[in-house]
UniProtKB/TrEMBL annotation:
Record domain Major facilitator superfamily (MFS) profile: where: 247-438
Gene3D superfamilies assigned: MFS general substrate transporter like domains
Species in which this protein is naturally found: Imperialibacter roseus
Name listed for the protein in its UniProt record: MFS transporter
Location(s) in or outside the cell: Endomembrane system
Coiled-coil regions listed: none
GTP-binding keyword on record: no
Keyword Transmembrane helix: yes
């Protein structure tokens, strides 16, 4: 079996999935939906306290908990699905399924107006599951479409295209929300709801490109028997191999902690600006625009740093900067200060995401074809870190009444991640025993 690892058309198609699905992460997760959600629930319920399934809870806390729940759900069943995908050669099939689920849920958010808060929360949870569920299979294609010496730059290219594509759609949405009458909308709220519909259409439409070019079953796997049972065996085999991969274990610990901070900032930065600084929606979205533009440069900058100094140095530099960002955010009191912090966040956000993915790819044994199963552990680590990070952020806000205190907790997560990262050796990769490898 031979894989063509120098086909730029396949690499570009793989990067196009970042272009297609990153609009969800930007429009739904980071900008328009959080601001819209806070606004319409506050207007309908007459304050920050909302009624959800008979419970009274702060709207931003409910949103934090819903994010935690969605990632907990995907963390529970993605390993088994990845095992099935590896055993049956079904990575692209599962990539399609989660894309369809996520895109449909984004379109459903068009009908959320604040009075139907259950619809809004449940649709956002399903969209999150679709997005995060697709990533484990998407990421697993990286070792199958290019050579290891290009992991850093190809991963960076994917994230850069994602930032660029989502920025284009966000700019259009921002214009339509600011000038709704230009597009025939009654108000900015109607334009916001239309933005959610556009995300679903964009995500699904551009995904057709990678669906066409990515290999369907590159290792010619021919499943026989019960898929669930064999999927479980695949995951168990990969889990057992971790005992022979100390560098991977240490890296996953480091990634677990620093990713808590990275993802929580991405998910809840807009609500921080809205609640703590009372910034209007257009300024919050402008902040995210700044982050997106800088993130493109950051992705390539730290890919270069990694090429020259290695992944360990590159990631360590970024984690230290993230620690300073969290400490600085505690003292932010003005829009200008918020913009400065956002610029720094953008610089390290693109870099740390792309380099985390490529660094893990380098730690996967070279003689394995179970890439989805290995990436499922990366994915579970990522999702559990998001669950704990967003839950802790919401819990600290609920107990102390301030999001500022939550930012200090994020700094602690980054410090722990840095300590484990310093113990990780990216230069020595121990392969599993022969009978464990294919």
């Amino acid at each position: 079996m031979n894989l063509n690892l120098k086909n730029n058309k396949v690499v570009n198609a793989w990067c196009m999935y970042d272009w297609s699905n990153s609009v969800y992460n930007l429009v739904i997760t980071s900008t328009i939906f959080p601001v819209y959600y806070s606004s319409v629930t506050r207007n309908f319920f007459g304050g920050e306290q909302v009624q959800f399934l008979g419970l009274t809870i702060t709207n931003t806390v409910l949103y934090s908990y819903s994010i935690s729940f969605s990632f907990l759900a995907i963390a529970l069943f993605s390993p088994l699905l990845s095992g099935i995908a590896d055993y049956g050669g079904m990575k692209k099939l599962f990539l399609r399924i989660f894309t369809y689920i996520g895109a449909a849920a984004c379109i459903t958010l068009y009908f959320f107006d604040g009075s139907n808060i259950e619809l809004g929360i449940f649709a956002s949870i399903v969209a999150s599951i679709g997005y995060s569920g697709s990533l484990v299979f998407y990421n697993a294609f990286l070792p199958e479409i290019t050579t290891s010496d290009r992991y850093d730059i190809v991963s960076a290219k994917g994230y850069a295209m994602g930032y660029a594509g989502s920025l284009l759609l966000l700019l259009f949405n921002l214009i339509s929300i600011t000038f709704p009458d230009w597009f025939g909308f009654a108000n900015g709220g109607a334009a916001s709801r239309f933005a959610f519909l556009l995300v679903g259409v964009w995500w699904l439409g551009f995904s057709l490109i990678p669906f066409h070019y990515l290999p369907t079953n590159p290792y010619n796997r021919k499943p026989a028997g019960k898929l669930l049972a064999h999927g479980y065996k695949e995951v168990r085999k990969v889990f057992r191999s971790l005992k022979d991969l100390p560098s991977m274990r240490r890296y996953l610990k480091a990634f677990f902690f620093y990713n808590m901070g990275v993802q929580t900032v991405m998910f809840l930065a807009a609500t921080f600006g809205d609640k703590e600084l009372k910034l209007p929606g257009e300024k919050l979205i402008l902040t995210v625009l700044i982050i997106q533009v800088v993130a493109v440069a950051g992705s390539y900058l730290f890919a270069y740093v990694s090429k020259v100094k290695g992944n360990k140095i590159s990631l360590s530099i970024m984690v230290v900067i993230w620690i300073l960002v969290c400490l600085g955010a505690y003292f932010v009191t003005s829009a200008m200060q918020f913009y400065v912090v956002a610029t720094v966040v953008g610089l390290v956000m693109g870099g740390i995401q792309s380099q985390s993915r490529s660094a893990f790819s380098k730690l996967i044994p070279e003689n394995t074809i179970d890439h989805a199963s290995y990436f499922s552990f990366y994915d579970v680590t990522e999702k559990l870190s998001i669950v704990i990070g967003t839950f802790a952020y919401g819990l600290i806000e609920q107990l102390t009444g301030s999001m500022r205190n939550s930012t200090l907790a994020l700094a602690t997560f980054f410090i722990l991640g840095l300590l484990f990262l310093r113990q990780t050796n990216f230069n020595v990769i121990r392969l599993p025993k022969a009978e464990e490898a294919r």
